[in-house]
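The pair is quoted verbatim as follows:
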Amino acid sequence: MILVGASVGTLSGFFGIGGGMILIPLLLLIGVDIKSAIGISIVQMVFSSFYGSYLNYKRGSLILGDGLFVGAGGFIGGFIGAWVSLNVPEVVLEYLFLGLLIFALYRLFQAKVSEDGGSVKSLNRAVLFFVGLIIGIFAISLGVGGSIMLTPILVGFLHYPIKKGVSAGLFFVTFSSISGLIAHIFAGDIDLRSALFVAFASLVGVYLGVYLKEIVTSSKHKRYLLIMYMVALAILIKKLLIG
């Protein structure tokens, strides 16, 4: 659990993801059931996203303004997502998520690499809230943080510099994962002991991941992001077609 947590934390800090997309398959491989895996994943996301956002803010790569409105939508969406996961067939959510993932990969591929000092376009705050709400619903219902969908929107549509988009994506995970954690605690389906082992170990990985993100060039960072998205896409397609 400690090794898994540290590894997922590194990916979380570097790619700005909650880590659930990687953590849940790993937990399933070592024999954890799906509901416990989702609960452990959400606890880990709370720890890694909060600490990673703090590090990004200190390094000046986190823009708080728009992120707060997207995050507020994600917070409410997280509660709805926890309810959706109990009442909507998993396969329906997975196919919808597959479509969103393909779209996100396309937008990220098309996006031009902006330098970190570039200007950032803003959207209407109601639009930002709605985007966060929809992403939060999908994210928590599937046990992931949501940045895998948000980052391509920020980079592909709002022309965020790639590293600032990644930092904003991880900040979003803080909101959606906290609401998901509250909902799952009330449902009583979290293996808290295992979750805390993974979560605390992930903090070491997050520190390393954020450090690596800051020293790599933006063009290489985008390339690594695209590889990560393609791996996630392959994992999801395999699960849908093979099981």
Summary: The chain has a mean pLDDT of 81. DSSP finds ten helices and no strands in the chain. The two ends are 24 Å apart (CA to CA). Residues 2-241 form one domain.
